[in-house]
Amino acid sequence: MAVLPIVEVPDPRLRLISKPVEQVTDQTRAFVQDMIDTMYAANGIGLAAIQVGVDRRILVIDLQDEKDEDDKPIKAPHAYINPEILSVSEDLSSYNEGCLSIPEQYADVARPASCRVRWLDEHGEGHEEELTGLLSTCMQHEIDHLNGVLFIDHISRLKRDMVMKKLAKLRR
Ligand SMILES: [Zn+2]
């Protein structure tokens, strides 16, 4: 178990295009576990490898939307390696997004409501699924990271400036 430091804006690494994973190995699996530990430690629901400084096309997501009898979230982390969006719906849905690389800042972002995605799991097995709801939003947000895109790129310049100002204040 290792919790890795998270890269935050305006670190230029967040603008890199991440490279595909050529082979899923034990090393990949150990790194995926570190990403999962890091995501939970930061109370996130998704994390892209570049957010811990590694420019590989790897994501972890756990929406933590299922609760046990004590109302504690049931952990069900998933790894998505070389994820690819095959198609998106025409209808959009808006969600108040946040990002571990832009701490404590949120903004409404409109994205396609559903998307069809293909990926490899941590055992190197292929999957293809139609994603909807929060998982669709989260997946698109995380795949954006692999292409050097942040959620603040999807909002107006005015709102983006506001987010960055609030963040600067928070850091002072
Ligand atoms: Zn993010």
Automatic annotation (TrEMBL):
The molecular function terms in GO held by this entry are: metal ion binding; peptide deformylase activity
Q: What is its EC number?
A: 3.5.1.88
Q: Which UniProt keywords apply?
A: Hydrolase, Iron, Metal-binding, Protein biosynthesis
> InterPro entries, alphabetically?
Peptide_deformylase, Peptide_deformylase_sf
Residues engaged in binding Fe cation: C99, H141, H145
Task: Give the residues annotated as active site.
Answer: E142
GO biological process per UniProt: translation
The Swiss-Prot or TrEMBL record lists the needed cofactor(s) as: Fe(2+)
The signal peptide here is none
A matching Pfam family: Pep_deformylase
Q: Which CDD domains match?
A: Pep_deformylase
- Please state which protein family the record places this protein in: Belongs to the polypeptide deformylase family.
Name of the protein in question: Peptide deformylase
- Native species of this protein? Sphingomonas liriopis
Give the lineage: Bacteria, Pseudomonadati, Pseudomonadota, Alphaproteobacteria, Sphingomonadales
